[in-house]
Design goal:
mainly alpha
């Protein structure tokens, strides 16, 4: 996290540093801080499906399933072959109790 902080002090528009720091926060169970960093990365690179998918995955961890579903779908609009987004979408739908949509996402 300290290295990412340094990187962002030197270049506050480095989306990759926000992604790395956000992922580190999530791994340390600081999910809100992680999600905030991923949101900052998306502001810098709004059309990056990997960043959007990471944000949606964090939203699943925070039980923000409806927002995660929106973000996974947006990711799939940007990159229809992004397998990780289908897996996350299926997981988000399962967590909302929508088994048919979960199966559809995973099929």
């Amino acid at each position: 996290i300290e290295d990412c902080d340094l990187c962002l002090r030197l270049n506050p528009r480095e989306a990759g540093a926000f992604v790395l720091r956000g992922s580190a926060y999530i791994a340390m169970n600081s999910k809100r801080e992680g999600l905030e960093d991923l949101q900052q990365a998306i502001l810098l690179k709004p059309h990056d499906p990997a960043i959007l998918c990471s944000k949606a995955s964090a939203e699943v961890l925070l039980k923000q399933y409806d927002q995660a579903i929106l973000d996974f779908n947006k990711c799939l609009e940007l990159s229809p072959a992004y397998a990780r987004a289908y897996l996350g979408l299926g997981s988000a739908y399962m967590n909302t109790g929508n088994e048919p949509k979960a199966i559809e996402a995973l099929s």
